[in-house]
Write a structure and sequence with these properties.
By secondary structure, this protein is mostly beta strands. It binds zinc ion (ZN) (2 copies).
């Protein structure tokens, strides 16, 4: 297993790495995530100072609440990350991370605001 996981947006303008020991995939079913990702948001979280980011100038930031802001690629529109301001963490969208990740969904968040058209993903 490598020490880092790597990822990139669809067009490749934004590239990142995060520590492979980052906890497993979290799935957030809150309304903010639904509206911005088009469905639930699956992500891996890590402290900002443990994440390398190339192409940051391609990111467009959006304050999604008083406590968080999110960044998407200005060229391809890929949702790259959510910053939880007080926690100093970035939540990196799982779908952008190169395979294989050797990760599983370990927790669902905001289960009660999930829409009616899917069942919660299995947690392992
Ligand atoms: Zn892109
Ligand atoms: Zn959410």
């Amino acid at each position: 297993m490598t020490a880092t996981l790597s990822g990139h947006c669809h067009c490749g303008a934004v590239q990142f790495t995060l520590p492979a020991e980052a906890a497993g995939v979290l799935a957030c079913h809150c309304e903010d995530c639904q509206r911005m990702h088009g469905n639930f948001n699956a992500f891996l979280a890590a402290p900002i100072d443990q994440i390398t980011l190339e192409g940051a100038e391609a990111l467009i930031w959006y304050a999604s609440s008083d406590a968080a802001r999110r960044a998407f690629c200005g060229t391809c529109g890929a949702r790259v990350l959510k910053e939880v301001t007080a926690a100093g963490r970035w939540l990196m969208s799982a779908g952008l991370i190169d395979q294989p990740t050797a990760k599983q969904i370990i927790k669902n968040l905001w289960e009660h605001s999930k829409p009616d058209w899917y069942d919660l993903p299995a947690v392992r």
